[in-house]
Design brief:
It contains nine helices and seven strands; from the N terminus they run βαβαβαβαβααβαααβ. The protein has a seven-stranded parallel β-sheet, with helices on both faces. α4 packs parallel to α6.
Length: about 250
Amino acid sequence: MNLQGKSAVVTGGASGIGRATLAKLAAAGARVFIADIDKAKGEATAAEEGKAGHKVSFVQTDLLSDPSVAAFAKQVLAEVGRLDILVNAAGWDQHARFLDTKPEFWQRVIGLNLLGPIRMTHAFLPGMVEAQRGKIVNVSSDAGRVGSSGETPYAAAKGGVIAFTKSVAREMARFQINVNCVCPGPTDTPLFASTPQNLREALAKAIPFRRVAKPEEVADAIVYFCGPGCDYVTGQVLSVSGGLTMNG
């Protein structure tokens, strides 16, 4: 895939699936901007990609903050004029029974996982509409497709991402803008590592492939939706779960 001359934003690009995705986009020639709250990891990622000859910049961004997202978009657009690719990959959760959670937790989970993509998409869509082209990929979760015990607010937020994807895809099709969604199953990320070990082991055994995904394997699906090979694909939800939810 050749993405020379294309500009891209990856939220959550400092680690996990976002990190793997930006590496593939940058290797294909895209100019990539990282939006992430983790300053140390974000700067280290940009520096590492720079050493590889890739054009990657980091801008510390708080997806819970409207002003922060607006400032990020302003900085990106001042440099590239218009965005070609937006990947909303940032996500966060903590494993807990629903009855043990509090409203503050719900607000943070929904704010990051659902309102974050909504804020970022709203910031960059006008330029895509004007150009009559663009690719948006939202990273949801199979928890949003079939539910997940111990992740109820997270599943609700990720289910919202799926519905948001399909609705924006319908609105933006007339402008030749593709909006699609990737739903990872259990994946070897820092977020997954924070879950109890017994649960991680149980999930791996439940997957037909008998292992969790590598971030790069999910990134391959995301990058497909970013390229010219999906110009006639929009509003779709692709599960990358090793067959865990093939009947979901």
